[in-house]
Amino acid sequence: MIAVIGIVLLAAIVFVPQFWVRSIIAHHGKDRPDFPGTGGELARHLLDELDLSHVKVETTELGDHYDSEAKAVRLLPAHHDGRSVSAVAIAAHEVSHALQDGRGEKMLALRHRLAVLAITTDKIASVILIGAPILAALLRTPAAFLACLGLGVGMLAIRAIVHLVTLPVEFDASFGKALPILRRGKYLNERDMPAARHVLRAAAFTYLAGALISLFNLARWIRVLR
């Protein structure tokens, strides 16, 4: 029974936030012929206005994001070529990440450094956690097993920290930058601003599922150590 509850809980953690984000974006993704431009065109305009003309605007199939290495705002075709509240809000959100990068904001830089580090520590943690029972059997001591688990859990914690650092970065992009940009520039009329706020909230929560999964896994391994 406990195992079933755990599976249901994990499924809820993984799928509910993702479903909510996608449903909000789809709900406000209806074509608006009255809009003067597409999401991609708005992104290009905003980047130029913010003295970030070196940042490219590209389409992608890998999800809307800003690539700090390539200096590129990448939008799904529906948002790059579409004229909708979702396209406008998401374009402004991703441009806001470019603005964070252009200003050298510390939280974005910290997230990037930790994300690069986490790629390595995730691999090492997997090897350690898989090899811990083998090492314990060879050394015939529980202490070796617990030491390996502790080291592995410590490395997994870096991934959880990446997600926790990501959340304030995302909220700043949505509400500290994108929403004021849209309002100040009057890129949407007032009746569309509540919908834009909903989309920006969904964009900020895009990484929530990853954060919850990381914390769930970390808590599970910590329980093993106890």
In short:
74% of the residues lie in helices and 5% in strands. The protein contains 8 helices and 3 strands; from the N terminus they run ααβββαααααα. The mean pLDDT is 83.
Account of the protein in words:
The longest helix has 44 residues, at 142-185. Helix 1 (2-27) packs antiparallel against helix 8 (208-225), helix 4 (85-102) crosses helix 7 and helix 5 runs antiparallel to helix 6. A hairpin with a 4-residue loop joins strand 2 (65-67) and strand 3. The chain starts with a helix and ends with a helix. The model has no long low-confidence stretch (mean pLDDT 83). It contains eight helices and three strands; from the N terminus they run H-H-E-E-E-H-H-H-H-H-H. The protein has a three-stranded mixed beta sheet. The protein is mainly alpha-helical and 226 residues long.
* Averaged pLDDT: 83
Low-confidence stretches: none
Tell me the radius of gyration.
21 Å
H/E element string? Answer: HHEEEHHHHHH
Q: What level of helicity do the residues show?
A: over 70%
Biggest sheet overview: 3 strands, mixed
Number of strand elements: 3
Number of contiguous helices = 8
**Strand order within the widest sheet?**
1-3-2
User: Outline, from the CA principal axes?
Assistant: elongated
Structural class of the helix and strand makeup?
mainly alpha
Query: How many angstroms separate the termini?
Result: 22 Å
Beta percentage is under 5%
